[in-house]
Each structure stands twice: as structure tokens, then as C-alpha cells.
Design a protein that fits this description.
mainly alpha; 257 residues; TPR_rpt; Serine Threonine Protein Phosphatase 5, Tetratricopeptide repeat; single chain; TPR-like_helical_dom_sf
Length: 257
């Protein structure tokens, strides 16, 4: 069959049109990806900046077109953990976990850690511990994960295990006062106040303590019977009525030993 020149011209035009459509579609797709990534970066800034509600608005909008996106489901769980809406955090994290077999190891670990933290907040301590232990196996170098695992042990009065986890967290992030405070509490709650003092006092002397670490340091001194030292440290953060209440508690505790 002979193909006329006019037919060839028509085919060329059609090919050009189709090629042009494909190129336009590709450009639209790339623009969408760029916009989605830009929005997600804005959400991350909001999350880190303590505005999880703004992050949630962005994540939920994106989830409408990407309902099975594991990262989005995980990030929503993180954001809801920050707002204290732990049931919603569990909802999205469970959905992420159900689809996480194909994702990387660190992502599975992050999902399990956030699940554990949500369950801790809801009082499901045993299940939280199991999730956090699994997360720690996947993320042994994550200070945040090891700290949360330590909290789960401490809440069950397994203070030895709690201290081990806090020590690992502190080794990874030695400058964290939160992890240092938790390690000290692991000693104080186990009725070994001097070891708690040993953990907290150097930071106090350097002037790098927080209200929380000072109050726990005061408690440790009171447990040793040094009420004056406890009073001197505690009064830095308390009103007069609060200080009097704490001193009464310290004295009562000492009498009941």
C-alpha cells in the first residue's frame, strides 16, 4: 500500500501533538511532585517548631490523594502524638505498620517507636514495651528510641533495665539533660539517691540544669536526709507555698523511712 505525502504529514502532526501532550503531562507531574515536596517540607518545619496542628492540615490534605503513603501515615502519627491525640496517632500508625513490610528498616523502627510512645501515653505499658523493644532492635543507635524504651521499663519499676536503656541514650546524645534526668530518676526511684545526685549534680554546678533536674536533685538530697540542701535547690523554681509543701513532703518522707 502506498502512503501519500499528505498522510505522512498528517502522521507527523499527530505524532508531534501526542509527544507534546506527553511532555505537558510530564511537566504537570513534576510540578505536582515539587509542590507536594515543598508542602511536606513546610509541614516538617511546623512540626519541629511546635505547631503540629499546621503540619496535620498539610498531611491530611496530601493523604486524600495518597491514602496508602506510609511516610504520610507515619508523619500524621508523629504529629498527633505531639498534640496529645494518642488515639488518632495509633490509628494512622497502625495503618502505616500494616503496610511497612516493603519499607526500609529505619522506617519500620520509627513507626514502632511512635506506636510505643502513643501506647505509653494511653497506659498500655506492656504493649508499648514490646513495640519499643522491636524498635530498639531496628534502631540501636536511636537515642530517642532507647529513652522511650527506658521510660517503659521505669513505669513497670524495672529500674535496672530502665537505667541500661537511659545509659545507651545518653551515650548517643551525651548533652541531653532529658536523658540524664531520666537516668538519675532510674537511681532515685530505686532508692539509691546518691547515685542520682552523682548523675545530676555536675550539670547543676555548671549552671546547665533545668527546673525538672533541679527538683529531682532536691528530692535526692531530701531522700538522703539533707533537707537544707534540698530546700536550697528547690527554692530556685518554686513559690513560697510550693516550697513549704515540698519541704513538708520531704520531712514526712524522712520520718517514715
Amino acid at each position: 500500500m502506498k502512503i501519500r505525502l499528505t498522510d505522512l504529514g498528517l502522521l507527523a502532526v499527530i505524532t508531534l501533538v501526542l509527544t507534546g501532550c506527553t511532555g505537558y503531562s510530564t511537566m504537570q507531574s513534576e510540578d505536582t511532585k515539587v509542590r507536594l515536596q515543598s508542602d511536606r517540607e513546610l509541614a516538617e518545619v511546623a512540626l519541629v517548631g511546635g505547631r503540629p496542628g499546621s503540619a496535620i492540615d498539610i498531611y491530611r490534605q496530601q493523604l486524600e490523594s495518597r491514602p496508602d503513603d506510609v511516610e504520610l501515615l507515619y508523619l500524621l502519627g508523629v504529629a498527633y502524638n505531639q498534640t496529645g491525640e494518642f488515639d488518632l496517632a495509633l490509628h494512622f500508625l497502625d495503618k502505616a505498620k500494616a503496610q511497612d513490610l516493603a519499607v526500609k528498616q529505619h522506617v519500620r523502627g520509627d513507626i514502632l517507636r511512635e506506636l510505643g510512645r502513643a501506647k505509653l501515653a494511653l497506659g498500655d505499658i506492656r504493649q508499648a514495651q514490646r513495640d519499643l523493644e522491636s524498635a530498639a532492635d531496628l534502631l540501636p543507635a536511636s537515642a530517642e528510641t532507647m529513652n522511650s524504651l527506658g521510660v517503659s521499663y521505669a513505669l513497670q519499676k524495672e529500674y535496672g533495665k530502665a537505667r541500661e536503656a537511659f545509659i545507651v541514650a545518653l551515650a548517643i546524645e551525651p548533652g541531653s539533660l532529658e536523658y540524664r534526668n531520666n537516668l538519675a530518676l532510674g537511681w532515685i526511684l530505686a532508692d539509691q539517691p546518691q547515685k542520682g545526685i552523682d548523675v545530676l549534680y555536675p550539670s547543676y554546678l555548671r549552671g546547665s540544669s533545668t527546673s525538672k533536674t533541679r527538683q529531682n536533685l532536691a528530692l535526692a538530697f531530701a531522700m538522703k536526709g539533707d533537707i537544707e540542701a534540698a530546700k536550697m535547690i528547690a527554692k530556685q523554681d518554686l513559690t513560697k507555698p510550693e516550697l513549704e509543701k515540698n519541704i513538708a513532703y520531704y520531712q514526712q518522707w524522712e520520718q517514715e523511712k
